[in-house]
Structure formats: structure tokens, C-alpha cells
């Protein structure tokens, strides 16, 4: 998949970031340390990324005039979330390089398209089927069996837009609750653990992977990540190989996260891809304090046309998300040896909302 021509930035140049959440905030902070400026575009006036940049545009993604003015003020454009409207991406790509290539969004915004893409690479996924009606849902269940997970094809994250189906469930009611006519049914995977790989790819084709990370979810939201993952060297190598193959096949420039399942297979295990996130990823937050270069700096390097770094992990690292009112206990974390507290500056601690995270690094024992 070919992409836009890479422009090599110099210190003082400006990166445009679509989206003003915590990922945009941390990207902007990483860019500032490298002497690069950022301009954030977000429709949310309370965007936490606005707090750390001098230039910001608060406008809807459908506002073509605002998009054009934003593009005129930046040298390259990236995004902190993958649900950028295609129309907005088209307007921007006609004016400035958009990295990763906005065409990649066409693959990753649609769960069915994403699964088809991964399958064509010869990489395993859970069994899946396209669902467009309650009748096709019943046919998919007959094919895949239960339990299974019914998901909207677009705009789902942190457990939103999905439902677990088990024997005896009211299938028609489950379909109506999803409120869509474009869904995918996925076989439930009896996984041993959930892992992810954060990979960075430069325009020159170089791919650098971080250590495979163990992930623990609560209520469908990532709660804890641990690096390195407690997997065999063979599984770790396979997970990195898969992430590299995906990045190469996409012609990717920047950082992406690949979520995977480790599934028992006879006396061993195998790796199945769950989802691709075409952006910096929550499970890579441990790299801010636990590695010599963070995923955020790596992304900035890639889209700036600068050399990627070979990250060195500082020890055993645990990242804990502060979700909702977990953030009220931030002061307790400040007293934990080896802990670094990151608060995102969000005003309301709503249930399920990521308010910050804490990284605890246990240095490797000296020989």
C-alpha cells in the first residue's frame, strides 16, 4: 500500500494533530521535547491536548474552512484516534501529507475490512462473519457457534458497540440493542492471555517493535499493562513478526498497536490478531517511563522523517490506568517508589473514562 511522499521536518516545524484527547496531549509533549511545534484540531472545547500547545483549532470535522486554515498552518498531519471522518481526511490530504496515510483508515475503521485484511496476510484471527440483519446473525451463529461476540463494524472501542452472545440469549433483542445494520460476529476465543505489540515504522521501511506487553482488561477497558509479557521467546517473536508484517503490508508510517490473543494449542500456544489500532496505543503508555524512547517520541520521529530509536527497557514495568474516580487516589501513587503519575487534565471523572495512568518501574537486578 503506497502512501504520501515523506517530508523531513526540521526543529521549529509544526505537526498538526487531529483529536485532542490524552494521546494527542502526550504526542504534543513528545514533539516539544524534540523542538517541534504542534497545532491540535478538535471539536471538543475541553480537549486536554489544548492545554499543552500554543495553537489549537476548536471546530467540527465537517468545517472545511477550518480544516483548510489548519492545514495551512502545519507541515505534516497525524491523528490520535482512528475515527476521523473520511471527508475531513480527504480535504487535509489534498493540502498536506497525512501520516499514517489516511487510506489506512479505510481498512482499520471497519472491523470486517480489518479482519479480511489480516486474513489475506495469512495471519490468524477469531472466526468471523458479516452480519446485516437478524436473519444473517442467526446464520452466522449456526456457522460459528456460541459463545460469540457481536460487534458493530465501525466506531466501537473500550467495549462500546458490542455484546457477548451465549446459548439461550434473545438473539433478536441483542441485534436490536446494537442499533446498526452493519455488524460482525466473532467466535469467542478461549485465550490464555491478551497481549499487544507496539510497532513503529519509518517511511524507509524500518520497523522497530517494543517488548510484547501483557494486558488485563476490566469491564472491557484496559486496566493494567505489564512489560515484558510472560510469554515464551517463540510467542514473543511470533507476535513481533505479525506486527511487522501488518505494518509493512499497510505501508505504515508512525506507531501502531496490534492487540492479540495467546491461545492454547496442544502442548504449546499460538497467536491470533484481535484488533489493529493505527495510532499510539494505551498499552504502550509504559514506554513513557519504562523505555529509553517512548511510543509517542517514536511516532513523532517517524512522521517527521527522522531516524527511529532502538528502545531499551529500564526494567520490569507495570502501567495502571486511572479510570473514572480511580484518579481521586492520585496522591497515594505519588508516594510509591518507582512510580510516575500522569494525569490528563480532564475535568470530569466519568465512569469508564481514562483520567490518567501510573507507571511503576522495577529496575533489573544487577548481576
What is the element layout, followed by pairings?
Elements: E1 14-18, H1 22-33, E2 37-42, E3 55-58, H2 64-72, E4 76-79, H3 86-93, H4 103-108, H5 111-120, E5 128-131, H6 134-144, E6 148-152, E7 162-165, H7 171-178, E8 183-187, E9 193-201, E10 207-209, E11 213-218, E12 221-227, H8 233-250, E13 254-265, E14 268-277, H9 287-290, H10 295-304, E15 315-323, H11 330-334, E16 339-343, E17 354-363
Parallel strand pairs: 1-2, 1-4, 2-3
Antiparallel strand pairs: 5-8, 6-7, 6-8, 9-10, 9-11, 9-13, 11-12, 12-15, 13-14, 15-17, 16-17
Helix pairs in contact: 1-10
Task: Please provide a written account of the structure.
With 367 residues, the protein is an alpha+beta fold. It is built from 11 helices and 17 strands. It has helices spanning 22-33, 64-72, 86-93, 103-108, 111-120, 134-144, 171-178, 233-250, 287-290, 295-304, 330-334; strands at residues 14-18, 37-42, 55-58, 76-79, 128-131, 148-152, 162-165, 183-187, 193-201, 207-209, 213-218, 221-227, 254-265, 268-277, 315-323, 339-343, 354-363. Strands 9, 10, 11, 12, 13, 14, 15, 16 and 17 form a 9-stranded antiparallel β-sheet that branches. Strands 3-2-1-4 form a 4-stranded parallel β-sheet, with helices on both faces. A hairpin with a 2-residue loop joins strand 13 (254-265) and strand 14 (268-277). Helix 1 (22-33) crosses helix 10 (295-304). The longest helix is centred in the middle third of the chain and has 18 residues, at 233-250. The termini are far apart.
Amino acid at each position: 500500500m503506497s502512501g504520501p511522499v515523506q517530508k523531513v521536518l526540521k526543529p521549529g516545524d509544526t505537526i498538526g494533530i487531529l483529536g485532542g484527547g490524552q494521546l494527542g496531549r502526550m504526542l504534543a509533549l513528545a514533539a516539544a521535547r524534540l523542538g517541534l511545534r504542534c497545532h491540535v484540531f478538535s471539536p471538543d472545547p475541553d480537549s486536554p491536548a489544548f492545554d499543552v500547545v500554543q495553537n489549537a483549532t476548536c471546530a467540527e470535522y465537517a468545517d472545511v474552512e477550518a480544516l483548510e486554515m489548519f492545514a495551512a498552518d502545519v507541515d505534516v498531519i497525524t491523528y490520535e484516534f482512528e475515527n476521523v471522518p473520511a471527508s475531513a481526511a480527504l480535504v487535509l490530504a489534498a493540502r498536506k501529507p497525512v501520516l499514517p496515510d489516511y487510506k489506512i483508515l479505510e481498512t482499520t475503521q471497519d472491523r470486517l475490512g480489518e479482519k479480511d485484511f489480516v486474513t489475506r496476510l495469512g495471519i490468524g484471527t477469531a472466526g468471523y462473519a458479516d452480519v446485516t440483519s437478524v436473519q444473517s446473525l442467526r446464520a452466522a451463529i449456526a456457522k460459528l457457534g456460541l459463545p460469540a461476540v457481536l460487534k458493530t463494524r465501525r466506531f466501537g472501542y473500550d467495549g462500546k458497540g458490542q455484546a457477548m452472545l451465549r446459548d439461550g440469549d434473545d438473539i433478536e433483542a441483542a441485534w436490536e440493542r446494537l442499533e446498526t445494520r452493519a455488524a460482525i460476529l466473532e467466535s469467542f476465543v478461549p485465550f490464555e492471555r491478551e497481549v499487544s505489540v507496539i510497532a513503529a515504522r519509518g517511511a524507509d521501511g524500518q520497523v522497530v517493535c517494543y517488548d510484547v506487553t501483557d494486558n488485563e482488561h476490566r469491564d472491557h477497558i484496559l486496566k493494567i499493562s505489564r512489560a515484558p509479557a510472560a510469554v515464551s521467546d517463540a510467542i514473543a517473536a511470533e507476535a513481533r513478526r505479525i506486527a511487522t508484517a501488518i505494518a509493512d503490508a499497510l505501508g505504515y508510517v508512525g506507531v501502531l498497536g496490534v492487540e492479540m490473543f495467546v491461545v492454547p494449542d496442544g502442548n504449546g500456544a499460538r497467536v491470533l490478531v484481535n484488533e489493529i489500532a493505527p495510532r499510539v496505543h494505551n498499552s504502550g503508555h509504559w514506554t513513557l517511563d519504562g523505555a529509553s524512547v517512548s511510543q509517542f517520541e517514536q511516532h513523532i520521529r517517524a512522521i517527521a522523517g527522522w531516524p527511529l530509536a532502538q528502545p531499551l527497557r529500564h526494567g520490569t514495568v507495570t502501567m495502571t490506568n486511572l479510570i473514572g474516580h480511580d484518579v481521586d487516589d492520585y496522591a497515594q501513587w505519588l508516594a510509591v517508589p518507582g512510580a510516575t503519575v500522569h494525569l490528563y487534565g480532564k475535568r470530569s471523572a466519568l465512569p469508564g473514562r481514562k483520567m490518567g495512568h501510573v507507571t511503576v518501574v522495577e529496575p533489573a537486578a544487577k548481576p
